[in-house]
Write a structure and sequence with these properties.
The complex is a heterotrimer.
Chain A lengths: L1 H27 L15 H8 L1 H34 L2 H11 L1 H4 L2 H14 L6 H25 L3 H9 L4 H30 L2 H5 L8 H7 L8 H30 L1
Chain B lengths: L1 H33 E4 L2 E4 L2 H4 L4 H33 L6 H9 L6 H12 L4 H8 L11 H25 L3 H9 L4 H12 L1 H17 L2 H5 L8 H11 L3 H24 L10
Antiparallel strand pairs in B: 1-2
Helix pairs in contact in B: 1-13, 3-7, 3-10, 7-10, 8-9, 10-13, 12-13
Chain C lengths: L1 H20 L3 E8 L6 H9 L3 E8 L2 H8 L8 E2 L3 H9 L34 E13 L22 E4 L2 H11 L9 H13 L4 E5 L2 H7 L5 E5 H10 L3 E4 L7 E6 L8 H11 L2 H10 L7 H6 L2 H4 L7 H6 L10 H14 L3
Parallel strand pairs in C: 1-2, 1-3, 5-6, 5-7
Antiparallel strand pairs in C: 4-7, 4-8, 4-9
Helix pairs in contact in C: 5-6, 6-14, 7-8
Classes of the chains: A mainly alpha, B mainly alpha, C alpha/beta.
Chain lengths: 258, 277, 346
């Protein structure tokens, strides 16, 4: 009974989170451009999506920036969290306050100040600056996801490993990292999410024709959102579901073997 | 000596990143906030800060803190059970469900928000349903409730994730021991799970409250621009391209207020380590 | 994990490399979002095979300004609006054009030349123009004549979509009080602000481009809107109609200019000239709903469109204000606008 109630609640939360996504999926099949009127079922927006080179390129940039930025910021964030954990509380608090500045600033402040920095350093704006700016705002989230896990770790095991002659590197990778893995994973996922979702910081820190999906969607509000974007969301959503199903299938196969 | 070097090697990338991409841009912001140029001469000034001290700006700041606090509380009470359920035995494939919770946020923000408008607007899906069921249609958007709703929707996963990671780390033996010693499930929750998940709760509160205070897109769309938040005021200064100094000054004020708020929240828990066994 | 990293680095190289290899001249064009018929770009590249156009878009004049201000990013052609061009000229950021390279400039109607921002026609070539007005739902709004005060009529409580743009919003309040939209008089501006705040119960929302969507979907009955945007809304919802308020309005132009730090001035002029070819101008004006200053394209438009509100009579345009860059007075207007924004929710 309790289990059922739990599941019911969980599904309700999922419904809340997915209500707009389902709306997008429905709209992607709407022959009409309007959001309010149903003009019959059609695949025309999918057709348009695949023939729209600008959108396909923007999709590619969005995905590659998200993956690379998430990877790099997870690595830096993990190492930083471990280092911070070892600091004295007072120093840690001070460092953490600074770390959270990108979270506390409005996106536009972070975006503009990074842009000024890149201009000052004479780094040509484009893919690299876009990536760097995304790494910058992802790192604090990774640190915040990992730190609580570190507080809970019994450091004596790690120290014992050191006493028994393990190199610090080995002690880290064998003992510490597996312990904080859930934190690392959620930091990675959060980074991907933040990167895909960002518009303002991306806008000011890219150039030379490098545009991601958010920039494209934002600048097209003037003539109304191109419904091909709905088709894109529906496809992304479909891809996520398929990947989840495959992972699910593999997992259950493995547990069957066991 | 070697140990110290190792420690330094660990913290080095962090410090490099922090100085170059946080501290330097922060100085740039401070530079704009504290200077004014007339003609070609730069002056040091507090004017940008002084012009903020006016009842209507302060009210906007208080409104931002208030709405973000509401959203944080709702996220905490709605999200904690989700994290608890996720770490319990109701489901098996936990990693998958975690991804499932975040995946909606991978669809573009503007599109997601437009989808909410499709559902909630005057002629939207929800109102059509209400009408069909014989109720009066209502206006859901353009008020403070709608803004809090938008914050909850967009930030809920950031509350669930850290709480889940800290609960899932609690050894089962500990929970079982608590039952063996005669605790009810409520007692076990109160004495074992809740205190041990405190660091996660704190992270969650930070991840929801801080971005909530500075958001401006949510108030633009779901608040229809009628519920301006401090983020809107800051954004306006930078996007008009005229008053960067004022925008930078408000940013710095908000930063200090947010740090202060977080310190107060942290006070309730002392040092995170203390809450551990 | 390592494999992923390897794949990603290859992916990154693949992204960066094609940019280096090609020997074509890259022409950077920065325009409003969805403000061109994209086939025009490929037509241009077909005609000049040595040039590759890198096309980027912005959402507001101010966004564009912020991005080009640091001066390290070199765009070759920009298409901002009147007052922004004034600002760019004022700050010495624009290059004078060599009209010998732009023979098609002769197609631009003299009516649309010699704007306040560029009185001697040295810096800019007009691309599109329009006027500000009121878009309304004919099923809910019946008025004989429209003035800006229509928006403030108590019977339209919670029904008016205002713009989140300071020039337009302060402008219409000023105009409704009988002042110039470019006013820099503190008392006049204060009066305008108070008028806007006094009638805030009328506002359904204070929005940007998303307002068009709300009108098309029928959420709100009245909105302040540009003529081109209004034409698009009407094409998607036939219940809508557009009125130009009788107390005078704003008349604007977006024009092509070349920034000082452009690396390919000659190619940029080729591009501007190409945009002024009759076929190109016609394609563009048929794709986007604004009004063209190009005589050749105008003549080929169908009569219905030529007679619509998109080409109002001389008298309307004469009575309309063109936004100017107000120099040091911009700060005062910005302070008033901040005060208005912060007070709107109380």
């Amino acid at each position: 009974m309790k289990k059922r109630l739990s599941r019911l609640y969980f599904y309700l939360v999922l419904l809340f989170l997915y209500a707009p996504i389902l709306t997008l999926v429905v709209l992607s099949f709407n022959n009409n451009k309007s959001r309010a009127k149903w003009g019959g079922f059609s695949l025309r927006w999918y057709n348009e999506l695949f023939h729209n080179a600008t959108m396909m390129k923007a999709l590619w940039i969005t995905v590659s920036v998200a993956l690379i930025a998430a990877l790099i910021s997870t690595v830096i964030g993990t190492v930083s969290a471990i280092a911070l954990h070892k600091c004295r509380p007072r120093i840690r608090k001070a460092l953490l306050d600074v770390t959270y500045v990108p979270m506390m600033n409005s996106d536009i402040v972070t975006g503009v100040s990074l842009m000024l920095l890149f201009a000052f350093l004479r780094i040509e704006r484009g893919f690299l600056t876009l990536l760097l700016s995304h790494i910058t705002f992802c790192i604090p989230y990774v640190i915040l996801a990992i730190l609580p896990k570190l507080y809970g770790i019994n450091m004596s095991v790690y120290e014992a490993a050191l006493d028994l002659g393990a190199t610090p590197f080995k002690a880290y990778t064998r003992i510490l990292i597996p312990e904080i893995m859930p934190g690392i994973i959620s930091g990675f996922l959060m980074s991907i999410t933040l990167s895909i979702d960002d518009f303002v910081i991306s806008f000011f820190n890219t150039g030379h024709g490098v545009q991601n999906i958010s920039i494209l969607v934002n600048s097209s509000k003037k003539v109304g959102i191109n419904p091909a974007n709905y088709a894109l969301s529906a496809l992304m959503f479909g891809a996520v579901i398929i990947i989840l199903l495959i992972m699910n299938f593999k997992d259950s196969k493995r547990s069957n073997v066991q | 000596m070697k140990k110290k070097l190792g420690k330094f090697a660990l913290i080095f990338p962090f410090l490099l990143w922090m100085v170059l991409l946080i501290v330097v841009p922060l100085f740039l912001i401070a530079y704009y906030a504290f200077t004014t140029s007339d003609g070609n001469v730069l002056h040091f000034t507090f004017d940008n800060f002084k012009s903020f001290i006016r009842p209507n700006f302060i009210k906007v700041l208080i409104r931002s803190l208030k709405l973000s606090l509401f959203a944080t509380v709702i996220c905490l009470f709605a999200g904690y059970p989700v994290a608890l359920i996720l770490s319990g035995n109701a489901f098996k494939k936990k990693a998958l469900l975690l991804v499932l919770l975040l995946a909606p946020m991978w669809m573009n923000f503007i599109l997601r928000t437009y989808a909410w408008l499709t559902i909630l607007s005057e002629k939207g899906v929800l109102n059509s349903l209400l009408e069909a069921a014989g109720f009066n249609t209502r206006s859901f958007l353009g008020n403070e409730k709608a803004v809090v709703f938008g914050m909850v929707y967009n930030l809920l996963p950031y509350m669930i994730l850290p709480i889940y990671t800290s609960i899932s780390k609690i050894p089962h033996s500990l929970i079982e021991a608590s039952y063996d010693l005669g605790s009810s499930s409520y007692g076990c929750f109160k004495r074992v799970i809740l205190p041990l998940s405190l660091p996660g709760i704190l992270s969650g509160i930070t991840l929801v409250f801080v971005p909530g205070v500075t958001t401006f897109v949510i108030s633009d769309y779901l608040g229809r621009g009628k519920v301006p938040l401090i983020g809107n005021i800051i954004e306006q200064q930078f996007s008009s391209g005229i008053e960067w100094g004022f925008g930078a000054a408000i940013s710095i004020i908000v930063m200090f207020v947010v740090i202060l708020c977080m310190r107060i929240i942290n006070k309730f828990t002392d040092e995170p380590e203390v809450t551990l066994l | 994990m390592k494999k992923i990293a390897l794949l990603l680095s290859i992916a990154m190289l693949a992204l960066i490399l094609p940019g280096c290899g090609s020997s074509k001249t890259k022409l950077y064009v920065y325009n409003w979002g969805e403000y061109i018929d994209e086939s025009v770009i490929s037509d241009f590249e077909a005609k000049y095979p040595d040039i590759k156009v890198i096309y980027e878009t912005f959402e507001t004049n101010e966004d564009m300004y912020t991005k080009i201000k640091p001066g390290d990013d070199c765009y070759d052609v920009l298409i901002p609006s009147d007052y922004m061009i004034g600002r760019l000229i004022d700050e010495d950021m624009l290059e004078k054009l060599n009209f010998e390279n732009i023979p098609n400039y002769s197609y631009i109607d003299d009516k649309y030349k010699a704007w306040d921002y560029d009185p001697t026609n040295e810096y800019s070539v007009p691309y599109m123009w329009g006027v500000l007005g009121i878009l309304y739902d004919t099923t809910k709004v019946q008025e004989d004549t429209f003035t800006w005060n229509t928006l403030f009529d108590p019977k339209y409580k919670n029904q008016v979509l205002m713009k989140d743009d300071s020039r337009d919003t302060l402008g219409i309040a000023l105009k409704s009080l009988g002042y110039s939209m470019n006013s820099t008089d503190e008392n006049e501006l204060k009066e305008a602000e108070n008028k806007l705040l006094e009638h805030k119960d009328n506002y359904f929302g204070i929005v940007g481009d998303e307002g068009m969507d709300m009108m098309v979907e029928g959420d709100a009955p009245l909105a302040v809107m540009y003529s081109g945007d209004a034409a698009r809304c009407i094409s998607e919802n036939e219940n809508l109609a557009f009125a130009i308020p009788e107390d005078g309005t704003n008349y604007f132009v977006d024009a092509m200019v070349i920034p000082k730090n452009a690396k390919h001035k000659k190619e940029a002029e080729l591009f501007i000239n190409f945009m002024c070819e009759t076929d190109t101008a016609l394609k563009n004006v048929e794709e986007i709903n604004y009004s063209t200053p190009h005589t050749g394209a105008y003549e080929q438009l169908d009569a219905e469109r030529r007679n619509s509100f998109q080409y109002p009579g001389e008298d309307v345009l004469k009575a309309a204000d063109v936004y100017n860059y107000l120099g040091s007075k911009e700060k005062l207007r910005s302070e008033i606008w901040n005060d208005y924004t912060a007070s709107i929710a109380e």
